[in-house]
Specification:
alpha+beta; Beta-galactosidase, Chain A, domain 5; Glutathione S-transferase Yfyf (Class Pi), Chain A, domain 2; GH92 mannosidase fold; nine-stranded antiparallel beta sheet; 20 helices; globular; signal
Length: 779
């Protein structure tokens, strides 16, 4: 790919870097962590956060710029929007790229001078404790965030460990220093979220507390423990229930202030310090279980006060994690690539205390024996590419992920695997039972270390839980009837794929009766296909398709989940060959797929469906149901069209700037798509051992695999003048097929692409050269 001229935003970054001291420049550029820009996705609809965290860590310590309300829900799902000009504080938990908001726990704000107890209005500086800031004062790196709060002239620095958030605040000389702790705010657009909270100061100066919220996951509990590097000279704990701005709630009024303990729904603590001769250090541990566990986490993981050492440890953790792939590419491409890899390694998050305690979906405390318990599962998204990427790059961690899913199922009151869970609790968001393909994909690709029979039992339980999402009717009729369950077409299609993945794992385990049952269920996609219109549609209980039908209509109440017929009619990853045949063969299939990308669509058409963004015709790269579409040309003998579409997507949907993501990163799925596509292959059908080949976007990439072997992808000449694949060789031998097997990657070797100006219309034509599907499996 040709090197593009850097944007003015990127130039400003480079100028700022050149102004640093030699020691600072070394810190920025050492290892691949120096090529990560956490600002990417913090603007627009990316929903990422810029703050400090470590790979899959429990803490995501980041600035929050909006007070949660109905106006600041969707775009502020990560607490921060790049276009904002003030910060209300720094909280310790955040989602990365989610399409829904929550978290934002334990918010701290350093204050010099007078203290105000309310956040205030961003449009009226000085109306509250929030402070203005400039992006020029921000330093944003993997594992580190710093900013100057201009209204207080306080320099705030943040870094993180697995369970500890570390703060360092430099106050101006001659000004009284205060730290405000606010337990009221949360990143959720729902009034009255805090059900109860507690706050107390211990004799040794430690501060602990808990709160229970009714946000996305009702009844979520989180506790914390906090210590300061300087002694507190005075403190006041407030219960501000009388000030709650929520209709229908009448609090008891301003309760008596207290120095040692408070409880209620609207707690604020103000901690005062003598004039400081050195920066104030603060360390905070969290726990989903108890204050005592939070203190244990703090004692175990939070020794000492060497902030710079903790920052270096966070940086080293990212350098180690990102070292799994070395790439040669232009500077903007490298920034996109390593930031994508960084974003793909944020979730699921550690959700377990140092003693092994965690909270399950039954709201009870459980204990992990011999594994780390992880939660934050956006399973409708991450099963597609983010989890397959982890199975390839970090199979050991995938083992813990699967053990966590099984443990969550065992603690579930419903006896099924998570759907969309965080901090152990279930939200029931989105559709499908996509923990099933996460487990099946890992197993098929050789991940072990978990109880496969327990996993299979959990998968079958999830696939046969009749009360969930129309599954009872699906098992009786072979489809989800739209007159009984919304979004019936999408649910039918996604259940059928999940069934297929379950069948694959059962077959690999020698459970042939189970495999036969679910492979048969996997053909249910055919009940959704309407040969007359050529689209996937929802049927009613009587077997007739719902009328009237408009393939352009999207959104809740339609036949589809966050999509329309143009986007969902391609969702048969387990049987693309069968779909090609149903649509009339290769020529018709390719022609209709072209119509998806080439359509003239006004983005305003989807203004009522927030998640449908990144449009190229009807193709919506900002939302997951479209993510495999460009690769489907491979299955119809037109891989050169896959190559052309991928370039179209890569050029238009990703950029190394704050609004450089076309849609929600969705806990790493958008980023994992980028990583796979940049490498030249993609897991269209997780739970198979195959990757559809596209074309690479880096001249050379070396995967350093856990086995100690290397797998290298290379391409030449790689520039805009040579966008098509002429020939592919694997370990020096011509590769006549347009798919790669997982075993070929983990065995090590080299995949080389010879690029050319014109399409190679011969490569990938034969049926045996195409990626496999149910209708073409020979095994």
């Amino acid at each position: 790919m040709a090197i593009r001229s850097p944007s003015p935003w990127l130039i400003s970054v480079l100028v700022a870097a050149m102004s640093l001291s030699p020691q600072q420049v070394g810190a920025v550029t050492s290892g691949h962590a120096g090529e990560v820009d956490p600002r990417i996705g913090t603007g627009g609809d990316g929903h990422t956060f810029p703050g400090a965290t470590v790979p899959f860590g429990m803490i995501q310590l980041s600035p929050d710029t909006a007070m949660p309300d109905f106006k600041h829900g969707y775009k502020w799902a990560a607490g921060y929007q790049y276009g904002d000009s003030s910060i209300m504080g720094f909280s310790h938990t955040h989602f990365s790229g989610s399409g829904h908001s929550d978290l934002g726990d334990v918010l701290l704000m350093p204050i010099s001078g007078a203290v105000r107890l309310e956040p205030g209005d961003p449009a009226r500086p000085g109306s509250g404790y929030r402070s203005r800031f400039s992006h020029d004062s921000e330093t944003v790196e993997a594992g580190y965030y710093a900013v100057t709060l201009s209204d207080y002239n306080v320099r705030a620095e943040l870094t993180a460990g697995r369970r500890i958030g570390w703060h360092r605040y430099s106050f101006p000389a001659g000004q009284p220093a205060h730290l405000l702790l606010d337990l009221r705010p949360s990143i959720y657009d729902y009034p009255g979220k805090v059900l109860w909270s507690s706050l107390r100061v211990h004799e040794d100066g430690s501060v602990t507390g808990c709160r229970q919220t009714r946000g996305w996951a009702p009844g979520r509990e989180l506790c914390f423990a906090m210590r300061f590097s300087q002694p507190i000279t005075s403190r006041t704990l407030y219960n501000r229930e009388a000030e709650l701005p929520y209709k229908g709630f009448k609090g008891p009024g301003e309760q008596a202030q207290d120095r040692d303990a408070q409880s209620g729904r609207a707690l604020v603590g103000v901690f005062d310090f003598a004039e400081l001769k050195q920066p104030l250090g603060v360390k905070v541990a969290i726990s989903p279980v108890s204050e005592a566990n939070a203190l244990d986490n703090l004692d175990s993981d939070g020794n000492g006060w060497d902030f710079d050492a903790r920052r270096a440890e966070a940086r080293a953790a990212w350098d180690k994690a990102l070292a799994v792939i070395d790439v040669e590419a232009s500077a903007p491409m490298r920034s996109n690539f390593y930031t994508s890899l960084y974003h793909a390694m944020l979730s699921p998050t550690l959700s377990m205390d140092v003693n092994g305690d965690y909270r399950g979906p039954d709201h009870q405390v459980h204990h992990a024996d011999g594994f780390d318990f992880y939660s934050t599962w956006s399973l409708w998204d991450v099963y597609r590419a983010q989890q397959p990427l982890m199975a390839l790059l970090q199979p050991g961690r995938s083992t813990d992920f699967i053990r966590s899913l099984i443990a969550a199922r065992e603690a579930s009151p419903f006896g099924i695997l998570p759907v969309w869970a965080y901090q152990g609790l279930e939200t029931w968001c989105m559709i499908g039972y996509h923990a099933v393909p996460v487990i099946a994909d890992a197993y098929i690709k050789g991940v072990r270390g978990f109880d496969a029979q327990k996993a299979l039992d959990a998968m079958v339980a999830s696939a046969t839980y009749a009360p969930y999402g129309g599954l009872g009717d699906y098992m009786k009729l072979g489809y989800v009837p739209i007159d009984k369950e919304p979004e019936g077409a999408s649910k039918t299609l996604e259940y059928a794929y999940d069934d297929w993945s379950l069948g694959q794992m059962a077959k690999a385990m020698g459970k042939h009766d189970i495999a036969k049952t679910f492979e048969q269920r996997a053909t249910n996609w055919r009940h959704a296909y309407d040969a007359k219109t050529g689209f996937m549609r929802a049927r009613k209980s009587d077997g007739h398709f719902r009328e009237p039908f408009d393939p352009d209509v999207a959104g809740y109440g339609s036949d589809y989940t966050e999509g329309n017929a143009w986007q969902y009619s391609w969702y048969v990853p387990q049987d693309v060959a069968g779909l090609v045949a149903a649509m009339g063969g290769d020529t018709n299939f390719v022609s209709k797929l072209d119509r998806v990308f080439d359509a003239k669509v006004d983005p305003a058409h989807f203004q009522h469906v927030e998640d449908i963004t990144g449009l190229i015709g009807w193709y919506a790269h900002g939302n997951e149901p479209s993510h495999h579409l460009a690769y489907l040309y491979d299955y119809a003998g037109a891989p050169w069209k896959t190559q052309a579409r991928l370039k179209q997507i890569m050029d238009s949907q990703y950029a190394p700037k704050p609004d450089g993501l076309a849609g929600n990163d969705d806990l790493g799925q958008m980023s994992a798509w980028y990583i796979f596509t940049a490498l030249g292959f993609y897991p269209v059908t997780p739970a198979s051992d195959e990757y559809a080949i596209g074309r690479p976007f880096v001249s050379r990439a070396t995967l350093h695999l856990p086995s100690g072997k290397d797998f290298t992808v290379s391409a030449a000449p790689l520039d805009d003048a040579h966008p098509f694949v002429g020939q592919v060789t694997l370990n020096g031998q011509p590769l006549g097929r347009v798919f790669l097997r997982h075993g070929e990657i983990v065995a090590g070797g080299e995949l080389h692409f010879t690029m050319q100006a014109q399409p190679n219309r011969e490569w990938g034509q034969a049926a045996t050269a195409r990626p496999a599907a149910m209708s073409s499996y020979a095994h």
